[in-house]
Design a protein that fits this description.
The chain is built from 12 helices and 12 strands. By secondary structure, the protein is of the alpha+beta class. It folds into 2 domains: 173 residues, no CATH class; 135 residues, no CATH class.
Amino acid sequence: MRVLVLAVLLAAPAVALAMQAAPEAPPQIDYAAERAAIARYQDANQRLQDAGWRLARANAPFCKEVVPGIGLQLHDIASYGGPAVARAALGLAGDFAVQAAAAGSPAALSGAFARNREIAAIEGFNPNQWPATPPMDWQRVTRAADHIDAQLAAKGGITFTFADGAMVQVEPVPVCATRFDLYAGEERAFADGARVMFGGNSPGFGYAEPVFTALVAHELAHNVLGHDAWLDRHGRSDRNVRRIEREADRLVPWLLANAGYDPSAGEAFMRQWGKRHDSGLRLRRTHDGWDERAANMAAEVPQVRALMAAEGKADWPAHFRREIDVALR
């Protein structure tokens, strides 16, 4: 069984295997196993949402691009590989439901957004009315996220109606402008300027919370420092990629400290991860070696600690030394 995602695409191997064995026979589906597969994905995704929200919320005073956020992520049954199987496994009548409410976010603090609670309307509009071409139609859940963001920006709040008729209004708070998404089948994590994408097989999910959050912080650093746009402007040579990777590493302790973590967790991540996973990167030379990366992170920690002690914040736009030109800061 595997879960394919950009906002959850569920493959249903139980169905496929049954059809291979006897094409004419009704498939025998283990719904408990299907639910367990979805839950494993959602557990990992919850961890990503929690870490991402904490970083994006705490660093909002320093981010150039800030948006109103409530920390809610939905999923759409049309995006699953076996929509009918997923719908039956989760006991849903419609397609849209709660995927995750990030810990500490307005969505989570409302107490209304339990995992897989079915959504009937977003600010009066039923997202199930949007056309979809299942299976694996991820566009509609992205459209729902865009719709939520637009409503928050325009109205300063948003009302959700659930399938049981209950309603809740949620007020946003400022966050750094980045979404966090989990996808299956890979180990790598990357940022594209607007999102942080994590492979479901990332070794980071096996690390302690502060160490895992350091990996999320590295990817968030790419977005808040404008790296994707800078590479578009200056070219994606190995030298340029190495420069932005070094800069993202060095910002990690700053982002962590503002979110209440020990800034040395970045170095801890690099030492834990690097010895097992760095050889390919070292050969490509688009990144420094893991030991250099750990040292670069560690070198930022004294300044970060001093600023936290003196000012209660690590104001990185004011004090962080850039590796690249600051035109797109």
